[in-house]
Amino acid sequence: MTSTTSLPERVRVLVVGAGFAGLGAAIKLDEAGQADFLVLDKGTSVGGTWRDNTYPGAACDVPSQLYSFSFAPNPNWSRSFSPQPEIHAYLQDVARSSGVLDRFRFGVTVEDAAWDETDQVWTVTTSAGTVTADVVISGSGGLSEPKNPEIKGIDGFTGEIFHTARWDHDVDLAGKRVAIIGTGASAIQVIPEIAKTVGHLDVYQRTAPWVMPRHDRAYTRVEKLGFRFLPGLQKLYRTAIYWGRETYVPGFVKAPAILTPAKTMALANIKKGISDPELQRKVTPDFQIGCKRILISNTYYPALAQANVDVITDGIAEITPTGIVTSTGETRDIDVLIVATGFYTTDQPIAHHIKGRDGRTLGDVWAEHGMASYKGTTAAGFPNLFQIVGANTGLGHSSMVFMIESQIAYILDALAQMGARQLATVEPTPEAQKSWNEDMQRRMRSTVWSTGGCASWYLDEHGRNTTLWPRTTFAFRGLLRSFDIEKYVVTARSDAPVSKANTEKESVA
């Protein structure tokens, strides 16, 4: 997929990111007649997370039929859970067939976006020049910037070192002494794959995750034919999977005991994959299931039980040029260090490059009280800025594509209302945003993410869960079905205020 780095001087809508969020926004903007848009992405093609994460074993933990656009079903999935290459190929196919790629620019990094109060536009500085835009849609996502651990001596390691999200395929692991730090979602997919070929693998585990069986299978020839020629069949699969996933919500947000069957399956998964009692003890979590992200794998525990794999629960004191020193003083030599320590989810990097009306960045604002927005999509003090996958929009049970499509619909209605009412700007009132986020945090108190006895990446430095959505996904869709302009301060295109949103507190129960 080729692109040019020439940029127009001005566009109506600038979209940052070309993953599910950016691509979906572009397609729906085009369908709505909002053709004056530009999508910028630092990568070489559409795909976002699914373009960048190419580590061995990379796959989705949401079923294929649900982890795809509702408006672009894919009859070509090979399995019930899609591997990374298929998801990336799917996004590329959707992009090509949609006819919007002429307004994408790849290899372009957004360096700064500043609101110009005088001209009521965003001035966006990029690696390829400057663009002004009436509206900015950030679709950069929460899983875009890898987070490396701050460990003494890590910069002095002389062997090969890389993050799972930036996998170095030029490094041959065969026969090597390898260490991997982390036992999260990417690690449990990588470990079974590399354990087959490495000489020895040290797995550094700080917290044992809950891992349920992965009910994955190849689709039969009959199913594939049905998906291709009976569109209603895919819709039936998707609907059944969706509602099945929603049954987990009460267990996460109100009554963790509902998750007991899941815990039973996870404990059985340990015993099935590992026979050694001591290793079983090491990998059995000491917190309530659901408190951290529940993972799925059939191969993780058998891989840990292999003779060439050691699970190390001692902390890491430092990294030497040739190995790792644990908190007990033991030194373990390695050739390759793989970092599987996740992403900046509660402090999204893009926020530090977006300056609002008062000159502060979104990151500066969030640093005071934590990541917060109105409906996970707009922010007070940042006119005409829309964020897809913003604060409290993440999920622990279902497909983020459903949430993304819900936000896109909300944004499109906002743009439609701006056009119909001849509005220059919209931004949520501080009161509306405050009420929304107070409701989020009130709901969080009873969730397993707050009461389950773990420290997860869902929580920010203030101990607040600013990442996940504490309700059903259909409740989210309902709340974002139409743009509630009464909760916004708006200005006319003449720059004169035409109305002010009703600032009375609205119940969002």
TrEMBL record:
Pfam families on file: Pyr_redox_3 (PF13738)
Listed name of the protein: NAD(P)/FAD-dependent oxidoreductase
Originating organism: Nocardioides marmoriginsengisoli
